[in-house]
Design goal:
The protein is an alpha/beta fold. The chain folds into two domains: 189 residues, 3-Layer(aba) Sandwich (glycerate kinase, domain 1), CATH 3.40.1480; 285 residues, Glycerate kinase, MOFRL-like N-terminal domain (Rossmann fold, 3-Layer(aba) Sandwich), CATH 3.40.50.10180. The chain is 37% helix and 17% strand. The chain has 17 helices and 15 strands. Strands 6-5-4-7-8-9 form a six-stranded parallel beta sheet, sandwiched between helices. A six-stranded mixed beta sheet has the order 10-11-15-12-13-14, with helices on both faces. It has a three-stranded antiparallel beta sheet with strand order 1-2-3. Helix 1 packs across helix 12, helix 7 packs across helix 9 and helix 13 crosses helix 14. The longest helix is centred in the N-terminal third of the chain and has 23 residues.
Length: 484
């Protein structure tokens, strides 16, 4: 390959990276707040009301205001809210993210939850949030600031006898199962004391405003951080079906297997048949008096808990795609968006998108095919250093090798800046990737089988490294062609 061709590919890499980073940077949380809500004196105005709750909310109607911020964007979301609120005297709250901010508000307790697996702070944050919202009454307004990643960094088992180690093993098993995120979160919701609407249920009388930065499909908002404030429509029957589908039962820690095998496994709050709420069977020494709650009373409480809830989507993967589209068009590419492989296996998605890519570039030689969403990876061994984006790109690299001399590149990266268990957001490949990797002693098929993509892409200089972005708006894939 001539030096000019190498330079052309380097330029194409830079273009792909600029489109990705530019699309993420354009998803500005402060601007999104201002497009959706506005504080004027003591009133919160919903600028684009979606039909849930009132258009205007008088803060003076409430004696206390709580804020529960959780997820990878919890810090920026909380800072933005506080900057825009003039009334702070009665404000208290919890902030749980995967990074502690350098500057902290004294009215808040901060927790560094684990991701992609929970840790002790994940439990502590959930306990603190439950304790706080249980103090809420009719004179209380609660803001829930929810972004992606909260499923791991904010969790507490419904059964108090389940340990943190068993909870970590449970999350690890789900991530390795190859199940799409919606199915994973169905199991998480029924396992957790704060997911599947249970955090909202802990404050049935309070008014609630949930401001969302979803890393899930918009049709599945109750999957965001496993839906702590959203009514859940999955059922115990779904749970049992999924455990069988992925043969998870025998692999679960004994305490969690016993929990899921209970005949009286409780339903999560939502529009479905109800059973009495779950009260763990405690040894006599630990027994505590419990108020008798009937199924009818529980249904009434559920209606009360969600009736006055307001949900606002601040940013989503739609914004990420539209930003990428605008930047690609500005760079002179014909742009096509195809999100149909969302939640597919990474190898199936690679085959599909590359077939579409090659078909399109036959008539559009300067092309950018954009795809957003998350792919699945089924682990059958302890993985190396990698993630779903790098796994996808490595799979693409094997196919791109057939197009030596052509100006093609594939980028896939997470908008949160983190891919799997690495510090990379994702990676880039082109028709020279396989050859260059062999020169460094890497064999792609071996690395692919070991789920160990990051060392290779790092050695080649083809890892996409942004650092944590404060976002989590799903993954972005770019397949770019230029005419030679």
């Amino acid at each position: 390959m001539t030096p000019v061709s190498e330079l052309a590919l380097e330029t194409l890499h830079a273009t792909a990276t600029e489109i990705f980073t530019g699309a993420v940077e354009a998803c500005n949380i402060a601007s999104a707040f201002d497009r959706r809500i506005r504080f004027e004196g003591d009133t919160l105005h919903r600028l684009l009301p979606d039909g849930s709750g009132p258009a205007d909310i008088k803060l003076s109607s409430y004696k206390r205001i709580f804020v529960i911020a959780l997820g990878k964007a919890a810090g920026p979301m909380l800072d933005t809210l506080l900057e825009r609120m003039s009334r702070r005297k009665s404000l208290r709250g919890i902030c749980c993210s995967n990074q502690l901010p350098r500057v902290r508000n004294w009215r808040f307790r901060y927790f560094e939850g684990g991701h992609p697996l929970p840790n002790e702070d994940s439990f502590a944050a959930a306990r603190a949030a439950l304790a706080m919202v249980k103090k809420a009454r009719k004179d209380t307004l609660i803001f829930f600031l929810i972004s992606g990643g909260g499923s791991a960094m904010f969790d507490l088992p419904l059964d108090p006898h389940v340990s943190i180690d068993d909870t970590i093993a449970f999350h690890q098993l789900l991530l390795a199962s190859g199940a799409p995120i919606g199915e994973i979160n169905t199991l998480r919701k029924h396992f957790s004391a704060v997911k599947g609407g249970r955090l909202a249920m802990a404050a049935p009388e309070a008014a609630k405003v949930s401001l969302l930065l979803p890393d899930v499909p918009l049709r599945s908002l109750d999957a965001l951080s496993s839906g702590p404030t959203s009514p859940d429509h999955s059922t115990v029957a779904d749970v049992r079906e999924l455990l069988a589908k992925y043969d998870l039962g025998p692999k679960l820690p004994p305490s969690i297997r016993a929990f899921f095998e209970r005949e009286d496994l409780p339903e999560s709050p939502g529009n479905k048949g109800w059973r009495p709420p779950f009260f763990p069977r405690l040894p006599k020494a630990e027994a505590v008096p419990l108020r008798r709650v009937t199924a009818a009373a529980t249904m009434s409480g559920e209606n009360e808990a969600f009736r006055d809830s307001v949900f606002e989507i601040l940013l989503s993967s739609h914004d990420l795609v539209e930003n990428a589209r605008a930047l690609s068009q500005k760079a002179g590419f014909h742009v096509v968006v195809d999100n149909s492989c969302d939640d597919w296996d990474y190898a199936d998605a690679a085959r599909y998108l590359l077939e579409r890519f090659h078909a399109l570039r036959s008539t559009h030689p300067r092309l950018c095919l954009i795809s957003v969403g998350e792919l699945t990876v089924k682990l059958d061994r302890i993985p190396g250093a990698g993630g779903r984006n790098q796994q996808f790109v490595m799979e693409c690299a094997l196919e791109l090798e057939k197009y030596a001399g052509e100006r093609l590149t594939v980028l896939s990266a997470g908008s949160d800046g983190i891919d799997g268990n690495t510090q990379s957001a994702g990676a880039i490949a082109d028709p020279t990737t396989v050859t260059r990797a062999h020169a460094f002693g890497f064999h792609l098929k071996s690395s692919l089988a070991a789920f160990d993509a990051c060392p290779m892409f790092t050695a080649l200089g083809d890892a996409v490294v942004t650092g944590p972005t404060g976002h989590n708006l799903r993954d972005l894939r770019l397949l770019i062609a230029e005419k030679a």
